[in-house]
Amino acid sequence: MNKLELLQTELRKYENVAIAYSGGVDSNFLFHVAIDTLGKDHVLPVLCRGAMMSKEDIEGALEQLQGANYVVLDVNPLDVEAFRFNHKDRCYHCKKSIMSKVKVVAKEHNFEYVLDGKNKDDEKVYRPGLKACEELGIISPLANNELTKQEIRDYSKQLGISTYNKPSNACLASRFDYNTELTFEKLQMVEKGEKYLHDLGMFHVRLRVHGDVARLEVEPQEFKRIIDHKELIQKIKDLGFRFVTLDLEGIKHGGYDVENKRNS
User: Where is the active site (predicted)?
Assistant: First the structure.
């Protein structure tokens, strides 16, 4: 059997599943495969809506869920102290809080098993939230069947799932230095700045915050476009930044983790 068939075999064992859903490549793939394997009435996606996600991502996730039975769970990660002060292990505490609530919602709807979209590649990088999910008994069928990110994209394309080429995203808190106090307003600054870039057709982007400096990470082929776009630079400044800089290394995932590793 190939990995998709192995995934379907595992899903059949659970019969009824709730899925921690974000609308990203992994959770949307898992959602579609679960629906195809178990049927719509046996799958409950739970979308956690809060300040850690942009409105754009939330709207995209809701659009993907049209026609499905789903629950929107409103959460406030700023209530979690480790998140609010952006500690290095914030993801562990935030995920523990949010996924505990997802488990409660699942139980209220008579769904015994809660699944997440962790893939095999996630096990190779710094992901403190994974430990929280393991402690809570969250099941990761994509990782269990050794599905990598690229394989999930390939299967998604094969199955006609529209998110097959969606750029990876991350919690908005990841744009700030560790041990920086976060507020709703600061998270919104990042959200709005990245939305300006998205509106110009640049989706693989990060706006990192260093005090009053906005450091833009984009694909190298977009450098000149950014430099020449004076109106964009001013709009980002108007959000509350004194300087807007361009990272010459381009887009990086886990950027602050990379920097901490260099300095350790």
Answer: 171 (nucleophile and sulfur donor)
Active site residue: 91, 94, 133, 171, which one?
171
Question: Which domain CATH number covers 73?
Answer: 3.40.50.620
Range of the domain at 155: 3-165
Distance CA 240, CA 228 (A): 21
First to last CA, the chain: 44
Tell the residue number behind the tokens 């969250």, with chain if given: 138
The Cα–Cα gap between 99 and 205 comes to 27
Amino acid identity of residue 28, one-letter, is N
Model confidence, pTM: 0.91
Whether residue 203 is found in the same domain as residue 159? no
Return all residues near 141 (Cβ < 8 A) that are at least 6 apart. 7, 10, 11, 30, 115
pLDDT tens digits, residue range 1-34? 999 999 999 999 999 999 999 999 999 999 999 9
